[in-house]
Amino acid sequence: MLSRVFKKINLGLVILFLIIFSLGVMYPLVYVVGAAFSPGNSIASLNIIPFGDGVTFAHFKELFTNTNYLIWYKNTLFIATCTSALTIVVASLGAYVFSRFHFTMKKSMMLAMLILQIFPSFVGMIAIYVILLRIGGLDHLWGLILVYLAGNIPYNTWMVKSYIDTISKSLDESARIDGANHLTIFWKIILPIARPIIIFLGITSFTAPWMDFIFPKMVLRSADKQTLALGLFSFVTDKKNDFTIFAAGALLVAIPFIIFFIITQKTMVTSFGTAAVKE
Amino acid sequence: MGIKLKEDGSSKKKILITSILFMGLGHLIFLKQYVKGLLYAAIEVIMLVMLPTIISKINGAISLGTPKPDLPVKLRDHSIFMLIDGVMTLAIVVLFFVIYYISVRSALASYKDYCIEKKFKSNSESMKGFLGKAFPIFGLAPTVGLIVFFVIVPLMFSALVAFTNYSSPNHIPPNNTVDWVGFANFKAMFGGNATWTSALGRVALWTLVWAILATATCYFGGMLMAIILLDNKLKIAPLFRGIFILPYAVPSVVSMLVWQNLLNGSFGTVNRTLMKLGMIHTAIPWLGDQWLSKFTVVMINLWAGFPYFMLLITGTMTAISADLFEAAKIDGAGRFQLFKNITLPLVMYQTMPLIIMSFTHNINNFGAIFFLTGGKPVLSDTTTTSAGGTDLLVTWIYKLTVNLMRYNYASVLAIMIFVILAPFAVFQFSRTKSYKEGEL
Q1: What CA–CA distance (Å, rounded) separates A257 from A259?
Q2: Count of the separate structural domains present in chain A
């Protein structure tokens, strides 16, 4: 009897803890949502209680009429889609070759890629800038896509290669006997089986460019070529603080991300786990 | 061409010599593989035509240009372009020799086939075989091209800059040239210059402390929540789990910028709220004090990072076989013992690679610092070195490059990151399946 009461109290405490913890976790998020709909500009003038000063849609209106928000969104979407698609093609094709063929210098190439992936790409930003200048990629979206693509390849090729290694080679053999060439085997047999890792690769390389700041700042100059991260950052610099507009803009980025994430979280986490553990 | 080859393998030397003499020559004279031979020969011809350019580009990278103060700025030697061109040219030359090597190997392989089959493959047959055998080349061409020109060349360039005096204000092309200075930058950073040395020591130490704290707090924070949610058999656990995932789902730039504003010392919402509630009377400098800001960034990183490990550990824990627990319970183990002896070791073992990955990620965690504090607060040497109280090596590199234009010191830091992280990369490599099975 006593132990049951004790258990009840215990459970109550746990739930209380969880509720307080959830409030702490949600606090900044709720506050941003509140800020997006609150009158005023700077964070200094905002009511400390979310939605405390009434609701307004003025900031969203301002985003769409007085700023290039839609262009930023479009540019970022384009960059992310292209980066993701190209990364899938290049990394999975490379991974297939590394997994299935024996050729000169394979070992040193794989080790080189493993070492290269530890550097953040911006360590070489001066050289990347000059190279883009030379090939005319500055201030073009494709220049940025190229930079992201190259940065994605070393790690992701390894990741996909480790996955393809687990696919039995007898499948390739039987297809080859039926007269399939390498490309067909890759396209019709390997890719469908490797789908979990390909989806994972697609998602991670799609989400990363949304919030990258360094390279867009370096590569893109003209006003109609800005991305979301640059635009949002420009609302809350040291010089001015348009926190409410920033909040409105951030909300429109975060909501699709959250929805997407909740839908895919199970696959994401299991792939994340397997991607690393499989190696 | 009617030059006969012996079928017993004794003409190997002839093939080897002709192939080395000129790319594709062996294919053309002996092996009757004209298309392939011409392709190879064309590559070598192009290289020979370009030879003067190649030599002048590489010379340019070695000399880095001479100062010509009397010329207009546009006509002066641009040392940085010369250096990058030199590195790119070098990369092309290396690629050329790799292709050369492949061509010799291919000639020898074709001869071996001839000796076995006693006849040449017809041209169409050999092209088909070529396409089949050359599949790795086609498959890897984009990978190699991109990596060479957008990863290796930039990194090589960065590494070389560490040995030059490329820095503001006196050595910025095109006004001035840049020169090789040997190890001078390393000497200045490691003891030669007191201000820079102390800044480097401080930043490097904080980078390590940060990476350990950030990884450990997120890991154990995530584990704690995973256990609480799994252990108590709550019906509403999925709801809480859904809430806790939110920080992970929000893009980190957004959440860090939000926190930066909320925690602002003078007008931030957190301080204003605490003051209204009467809990504090003066503003707390969350991001303004040297030590408090370090604590704050670790805590905010915990907020953003624990969901990932919570999800991961939940997954690992549910996969542990229930038999193990049953057996332990029969032996009289308590809940804590079950956790200590079964759950914890298994989860730790399973997630070890991810802990290491998270650690290396945190060493390079640019976003968490740059958007939250910008590296601030300002310390006594910040005006000279630009390194603030929460700057990591990566954010410092960024500031040295973009704000101070001290490219030479930034490159020294990049090399340091390499030295810190390379052992982890090798460790990861040694754990891979293909390495263990001796395939590589």
Answers
A1: 6
A2: 2
Domain end residue (candidates: A22, A45, A61): A61
Residues 6+ apart with CB under 8 A from A242: A41, A42, A235, A236
Whether a cis peptide bond, with omega within 30° of 0, leads into B345 is no
Domain membership of residue A115 as a residue range: 69-241+264-271
* For residues A215-226, average pLDDT: 89
Nearest CA in chain B to A110: B440
Q: Among A182, A220, A177, A9, which Cα is nearest to A99's? A: A182
Residue B180: strand pairing partners: B164
Provide CB contacts within 8 A for B146, sequence distance 6+.
Answer: A90, A146, A149, A150, A153
Residue A275 to chain B, least CA–CA distance (Å): 10
Helix (H, G, I), strand (E, B) or coil at A50: coil
Based on the domain organization, do A57 and A74 belong to the same domain? no
> Which stretch of A246-250, B34-38, B208-212, B220-224 has the lowest confidence by average pLDDT?
B34-38
The pLDDT of residue A265 is 67
* Chain A residues within 8 A of B252 when measuring between CB atoms: 211
Interface test with A, best of B140, B171, B405, B408 (most A CBs within 10 A): B140
Is the Cβ pair A153, B147 closer than 8 Å? Answer: yes
Q: A113 and A17, same structural domain?
A: no
* Per-residue pLDDT reduced to its tens digit, B175-190: 888 889 989 899 988 9
Interface check A96 vs B, CB under 8 A: yes
pLDDT in tens, B80-92: 889 999 999 999 9
CA distance A17 to A11: 10
Nearest to B161 by CA among B399, B405, B402: B405
pTM higher than 0.95: no
A91 and A212 together in one domain: yes
What residues pair up with B164 in beta bridges, in sequence order?
B180
